[in-house]
Amino acid sequence: MSINQSKQEEQERVNVVADKIDKKIERVDISIAQAHQETSRIERNYGENTKVNTTEIDDQMETNASVQQQKQLVELAVENENILNNNKLKLENLQGSPYFGRIDIVEDGEEDTLYIGTSTLQDDDGEFLIYDWRAPISGIYYNGVLGDVHYQTPNGPTTVDLKKKRQFQIVNNNIRTMFDTNETVGDEILQSVLSEYSDEYLRNIVSTIQREQNTIIRDTHSDVLLVQGVAGSGKTSAILQRVAYLLYHSRSTMNADNIVLFSPNKLFSNYISEVLPSLGERNMRQVTLNEFLSLRLNGIHVETLFERYEKDERNLPETTVKIRLLKESGEFLDQLSELEESHPEHILHFEDIIFDGKSFFTKEEISEIYDGINHAYHIPDRFLKTKNILIKRLQKRIHEDRNQDWVQAEIDNLSDEDFQQIITDHNIEESADQRDIIAEEFLRERYAPIYNALVNNYFFNPYKEYSFLLNEMDQDLVPTNVWQTMVESIDDHIESHNLNLSDSVAVLYLRDLITDGGVNHAIQHIFIDEVQDYTMAQLKYISQAFPNAKMTLLGDRAQDVLTSSYRKKDLVTEVNELFSKKKITTITLNQSYRSTAEITKFATKLLPNGDEVKAFSRQGEDPVIKVFSNDDYYQGLKDTARELNKKYDTVAILTRNQAQAEQIYTHFSDESIITLIDADYRSIPKGILVLPIYLAKGLEFDAVIGHDVSAKNYPDERSTDVLYTICTRAMHSLTLCVDKEVSPLLSHEPADLISES
Ligand SMILES: Nc1ncnc2c1ncn2[C@@H]1O[C@H](COP(=O)(O)OP(=O)(O)OP(=O)(O)O)[C@@H](O)[C@H]1O
Predict the structure, then answer these.
(1) In whole angstroms, what is the distance from residue 603 CA to residue 27 CA?
(2) Is 370 helix (H, G, I), strand (E, B) or coil?
(3) What is the H or E stretch that residue 124 is in?
(4) Got the DSSP string for 282-310?
(5) Count of CB atoms situated within 10 Å of the CB of 249
(6) Pocket test for ligand 1, best of 189, 206, 237 (most atoms within 8 A of CB)
(7) In this predicted structure, what is the pLDDT of residue 515?
(8) Torsion 695-697-701-707 (CA) sign
(9) Probe ligand 1: pick from 594, 617, 722, max atoms within 8 Å of CB?
(10) Which regions of 403-524 does DSSP assign to beta strands (E)?
(11) H-assigned helices in 479-613
């Protein structure tokens, strides 16, 4: 059969399936409308029931039961509506482009043809019209070459004979292209997908997942999956596809709330927010490292990586580097805990618990309790025993204080309603000592802040404990006076509610270790993008905080913008050392998809091992280096940006730091087309943007302008990572503007790339 005949037949099938999808959507719309009416009816009912008289106890109990029942009905109705809406979303995702792949297989002598799309679609009689891309059999589409192929079923591995693999590009229900192939996904379709212009959001890559990406997406056995992938190799894309895959495979035991993604910044969170919904899934939780740490160190401003980078750019003394490298290592955290355990006679740094302006428990009392507990116990056990004793003492106080005059007077002054409320809230039965019980309940409410302070360990000061251990630490890294100054500066910072990044992780680690807290058992998967920005201490702490989570770590050593000025060791080695007891799989991605071949080749020349990076064969314009030798650098930059903006919707001017971005912005201030992006931006507008490179991490733009790649601004190889990351943000066009003298990092570039004005 000729390909045209096949295309005709395939088109007929697309029409049939498209028609069925439309009809299903019509039906689901009717069900949604009915479900919505039902929810509203139950909610109205619920509203009326909650208005019932609540002053008589009997009535109130009855009302409570009925309200509970109504509440459950509302929840059920809402859930039903959610399921229907979700079904509709999946059908809508299939609309216009119902599938992208087909495989013909022979299994146990039987021939079968399967179509693969973003979700499963069944006929009314149960026949599969489309298989979900995550179904075990769909793995063949991404992995297999024709002939015998294996795939995993719930009953173990199975072998089938793969006869045909066909790819489609279907737009508005019309087959635009169709290929039979032996590869994962042929270049033609990938070419066409990659030459499209960027938009505000990253898109899913479900129809063109490549073999190595597929390995990342479908890995279910590793505790730590470490992906070292060059810029634009699809690391972020693979994360999101992997989340969708894991959600599908563990539907009964896991949902999106059991997954956390550590993302590099807020812009990034918005940028990736459309991928999972386009695959019919809810987004996982997202947090930046700074949000994660700040939330746990309530009331303290934790230095951001960006703030630190900006500071480092100004001044980074060698002693600071030495101390920082120590604090950022996994061993440093081990040292802290060993030191703590090696001082059994040491009394932890406790704090008074203040209530109503007075000390309710003094630190001396708490210290005495702690000291009185057998020193042979581990510190967390002693801490817990101390806490339990304090809670018991609080209970005793409640019991004793109930007869105090002030308590009795307060009870006498209670309104009838409040009095009744205590009785119903605590189910207090009528008896001779009812008033005593009420007095205790009253006190329990009054003393609740004390109880909370105990439960939340506010009587322990982890900052002082940390400084104590630093003072005790035997170190010969830096002279004693330098070390001492460092410890004092932490104390000063704490006074003003600030903490730098490396200390914050150490304090948290120590606090959680001593208090045996801070652990979240519910999270099953942690994803960390841009892992090259993380220290081993941070990774160790994160893995301690989420003990049940498998970790997927994705990074690129060459894009080490934020720490390259001082970090030396290789990320893969470090991670392997840190998690040596876990099952680690390391995957390397060398193929870059984002940029044109010209841009990728240009960028990789900056790297010492650049020849390992494989450019995708998408052709485009050569990058340009524009040198402005006169004093009109900013005018030249402006003209360049405007010129590019005629052709490309988004033109990003990327700088080394925020100050440079602001400076450019002031030169543009007469224009409404330019947007200065800062760390609080949540979405990327179109037009000309100016932002420091660290905010552009993980993002991509149609056209990129590197700001002032001069010898002054990029003097030596310590700037390579920054420049490389800037260049690799560009999809279609890259221009480097230079004020006077070109950076030595570009000295190998041929003269014809350089234009002088
Ligand atoms: N298999 C694929 N099919 C289609 N497009 C792909 C594929 N893999 C990657 N891409 C595209 O390449 C670009 C880069 O992908 P992504 O942002 O996931 O890479 P990355 O490795 O996280 O990049 P970086 O580290 O430079 O931020 C995106 O536009 C993405 O859609």
Answers:
(1) 52
(2) helix
(3) none
(4) ---EEE-HHHHHHHHSTT-EEPPHHHHHH
(5) 15
(6) 237
(7) 95
(8) positive
(9) 594
(10) 498-499
(11) 480-495, 501-515, 536-545, 571-578, 597-604
The residues of the chain scoring below 50 in pLDDT are 52-55, 57
Distance CA 172, CA 152 (A): 34
Q: Tell which phi-psi region holds residue 126, choosing left (phi > 0), alpha (psi between -120 and 50) or beta.
A: left
* Residue 237 alpha carbon to ligand 1 centre in Å: 6
User: How many angstroms from the chain centroid is the CA of residue 681?
Assistant: 17
**3-state SS assignment for residue 420:** helix
Computed from CA positions of residues 304, 307, 313, 319, in that sequence, does the dihedral angle turn out positive or negative?
A: negative
In DSSP notation, 220-236 reads -S-SEEEEEE-TTSSHH
Ligand 1 atom closest to Cα of 698? 27
Token pair 């402006």 is at which residue?
638
Residue 219 tokens, joined: 């890995």
CB of 534 within 8 A of CB of 329? Answer: no
Pocket test for ligand 1, best of 205, 216, 274, 589 (most atoms within 8 A of CB): 205
Q: What are the φ and ψ backbone dihedral angles of 678, each rounded to 5 degrees? A: -125, -175
Provide the pLDDT for residue 53. 47
Positive/negative CA dihedral, 593, 596, 597, 600? negative
**CA 623 / ligand 1 centre spacing (Å):** 20
pLDDT at 582: 95
Contacts with 510 (C-beta within 8 Å, 6 or more apart), sequence order: 336, 337, 340, 462, 465, 466, 469
- Would you say 107 and 163 are in contact if contact means Cβ atoms under 8 Å apart? no
Question: What percent of the chain is helix, strand and coil (3-state, nearest 5)?
Answer: 50, 20, 30
Residue 208 is classified by DSSP as G
Atom of ligand 1 nearest to the CA of 699: 27
Where helices occur in 630-743 by DSSP H, the ranges are 633-647, 658-668, 720-727
DSSP lists the bridge partners of residue 285 as: 260
Q: Provide the 3-class DSSP secondary structure of residue 756.
A: strand
State the amino acid at position 127 in one-letter form.
Answer: E
Strand arrangement of the beta sheet that strand 624-628 belongs to: 674-676, 687-692, 650-655, 701-706, 730-739, 624-628, 754-756
Question: Binding residue per annotation — 164?
Answer: no
Place of tokens 């990003």: 652
User: pTM for this one?
Assistant: 0.87
Residues with Cβ < 8 Å from 680, sequence gap 6 or more? 266
Q: Which residue has the tokens 């490179």?
A: 693
> Which of 271, 227, 206 is CA-nearest to residue 701?
271
Among the listed residues 212, 260, 205, 211, the one whose alpha carbon sits nearest the alpha carbon of residue 236: 205
CA atoms within a 13 Å half-sphere pointing along the CA-CB vector of 602: 30
Q: What is the pLDDT of residue 755?
A: 75
Which atom of ligand 1 lies nearest, measured to the CA of 593?
A: 12
Cα(514)–Cα(666) distance, rounded to whole angstroms? 51
Token pair for 392: 């018991």
> Assign residue 256 a region: left if phi > 0, alpha if psi is -120 to 50, beta otherwise?
alpha
| Joined tokens for residue 608 | 């010492």
Task: With a threshold of 0.85, tell me whether the complex ipTM lies above it.
Answer: yes
Around ligand 1, the residues with Cβ closer than 6 Å are: 190, 193-194, 202-203, 205, 208-210, 213, 229, 231-237, 556, 559, 593-594, 698, 700, 728
Ligand 1: atom nearest CA of 207 is: 3
H/E segment holding residue 179: strand 174-180
> How far is CA 210 from each of CA 143, 342, 354, 593, rounded to the nearest angstrom?
8, 52, 60, 11
